[in-house]
Amino acid sequence: MSDVQEFLRETVTDNPVVLFMKGTAQFPQCGFSGKAIQFLKSNGVKQLTTVNVLEDAEVRQGIKEFSNWPTIPQLYIKGEFVGGSDIIAELDSTGELKQMLAEAGVV
Ligand SMILES: N[C@@H](CCC(=O)N[C@@H](CS)C(=O)NCC(=O)O)C(=O)O
Q1: To the nearest whole percent, how much of the chain has pLDDT over 90?
Q2: pTM here?
Q3: Between the CA atoms of 83, 87, 53 and 25, what dihedral angle is there, to the nearest 10 degrees?
Q4: How far is the CA of 25 from the centre of ligand 1 (A)?
């Protein structure tokens, strides 16, 4: 396993909620990433790890291979890939996002 893939595996297993995004939670640098952050915040997430893919081209490419998902943002909860901003929006509308965050112990 490459160093990047190992870093990604450790990041998603060591942290209950991880959002791979463009920019930071304070300053998202893409509308999709901003939307993902808003949904997480509005559901009261208290422990959120973000990884800014714009800071590392290998991570930006590596996460797409790791999850087999072609775009950013990417949300992981308890080590499991959840999806991008469209899926996060859907899970928010059904209340499932709240439930998943509660089960991860981060709300
Ligand atoms: N519909 C997607 C939108 C995400 C998207 O299209 N992201 C683009 C623009 S930020 C992307 O990651 N492109 C590849 C890249 O920039 O590496 C979702 O649900 O997350």
Answers
A1: 98
A2: 0.98
A3: -120
A4: 17
